[in-house]
Fold this protein.
Amino acid sequence: MSAKRAIVVSAKEAESGSWYYGFNCCQCSGQIAVFDDKSNGEKAPTMGGSGHLQVACPTCTTEATYESSELVQFQAG
Ligand SMILES: [Zn+2]
């Protein structure tokens, strides 16, 4: 396993009805909100290049590293 340089970030507390960029948890497939999507779903997620983000899932607390290409957009329900 090669060491990945990951940026450690904290998951946001997703508010119902708000849009976020984030990841689907590799463990429980739950939604992990990382950034506010101020476009409310209109702008596709982008992190401007490659990179890795390390974040803990708020649902199952699994901490994992995700690639910027795995970024997804979702509305908290
Ligand atoms: Zn999880």
